[in-house]
Amino acid sequence: MMFDGLGSLICNLAAFIHLRYLELRAAYATSNLQLPESVSKLYHLEVLDINIRHNWGSRTELPRGLSNLVNLRHFLAFENLHTKIAAVGKLKFLQELKAFKVRNKKEFSIAQLSTLMELRGSLKIYGLGNVENKEEAMMARLKDKVHLSNLLLSWEKGQENAASHTVVLEGLQPCTTIKCLRIDGHRGIAPKWLTTDFSLMSLQSLHLEGCQNWVALPPIEKLQFLRELHLVRLCKIREVIIGPLESSGDNNNEQRLPNLHRVLIHDWLESEDLPALPVSKTSTDLDISNAGSIGSMSFRLKLADGSDGLALIISGGPHLSSLDEKLLAFHNLTTLEELEITGSPSLSYLAWNSLQQLTILKRLTLSNCPKVFSSFHTGYSLPPSLEDLDLSSCDITGCQLSEVLVGLTNLSSLRIAHCDKTLHIDELSFLTTAVCRNLVSLKKLRINCTLDFDNVDRQMRGFTDEQQEALQLLNSLQRLELLSMASLQMLPSELHRLSSLQHLIIKNCKSIKSLPEKGLPGSLKLLDVDQCSTELYEQCQHVKGLRWLYIRGPTSVELQIFDFPQEGSRWYMQASETYLKPQSALSD
């Protein structure tokens, strides 16, 4: 039966003694709704629905005799209302009890849970500081509740008796089939059923928070089905042992964690050791905050875009100083295709030699790690499988970059941005024939946004003969950008020999007055000139064979368009900027 109003019919509910299902809807939500006492006389009722969507809030008052509904199986209501059922133990057929709060009253004692053997799904037990000993705790019979899948055990602040906490938790051992376990605010030591006598082999989620006196963790390495691990404010834990990830043919007892994908470690200020990462070869999110010497870092292992391989993203934070084999388990990253390390201003050591274990690595990004190349020495190299290398704010020197590029014959994209040591005029040693000869697959050379020389020595007026010769070796180069070269007066004179070049971008190079005498490559499809000289703007209008021409500059600059670059094409100028492109590309 459904009632949109709580009028006279509600008062006469007791007459419906054979009612099995009752859904009550309040006409509007208030803070002082009260379920009528007559409901408690529906002794055959199996489902009582006063869900929050029906305007029954957490402050609703329940009839004191609600436990008389001895056949009740489902109580659909706000979680807080579940904690208000006095003498809930009488409802022996109840299948869901969202929460139970232990109080110092018989009708709210933990013994009320002893008869609720049909409970399934999730159960949250609060106020465990009101349980005095192990015997009382065992009266909850959690070990016998075989249908429960999720369990929360919570001690409130102010309930600080560590000795009683220890024995009480020993008596709250759940069934071995439990899948999700959370323990909050426990001030004792870890129970035997979670350490030496561990038997919860079906755990998929383990959340331990505020267990400040625990010195040992469950044997995480044995939890083959574990998907989530949250460890928060475990002040006395010194290490997390994850264990090997793959079963060994020589040792059948060796365990693995094939399903772990979420690890959260917060507020371990005294901890010294964390597990080598990743803890799983599957997709993993790891969030570390205030953890010993590491401080804070974010670690995410996910599927690479459009691939079956993995991508690892590490945001190190201000205190991360080292990524060695103890912290980063390179041998567990054999399927890694993308590695990104960012936001680590103190990172001064990276196990460069161990990167060779990443045999299918295709993309490497190092960003905002100004000290990371201080540990890079002659003889180190990157995996030859690398296709995309992105270095930003890393202060790699030109000599180091030359070493890095050795053997990268598959490299198709290289970006160097805001690396002042590299871009100093005396350190452009990576633009040599010896280096460029190996970059046979390079399509995009990005020095602060493709081939851009932002922050290069401002007195660089042109490319040296060696640099021009080296550029000619980049036969696959398709995109070239020159940015913010205030003193550069001449483009590479042999630019026309870059037979694969399709995109040329020149930005904020006001000293360049003309294009090369020998012209631009015939393959060029896009020319973009921004914040440059009027003389260069005028020359660019005569370039033939382009599909796209962008001329951007101050609106005060007036240009006369008199020779369309492409015969038979119609071009137009946009008022906000000098912007040209084929009329055929416009929609009607």
TrEMBL record:
Domain R13L1/DRL21-like LRR repeat region: 110-232
SUPFAM superfamilies attached to this UniProt entry: L domain-like
Pfam families: LRR_R13L1-DRL21 (PF25019)
Top-rank lineage group of the source organism: Eukaryota
Database matches in InterPro entries: LRR_dom_sf (IPR032675), LRR_R13L1-DRL21 (IPR056789)
Protein name: R13L1/DRL21-like LRR repeat region domain-containing protein
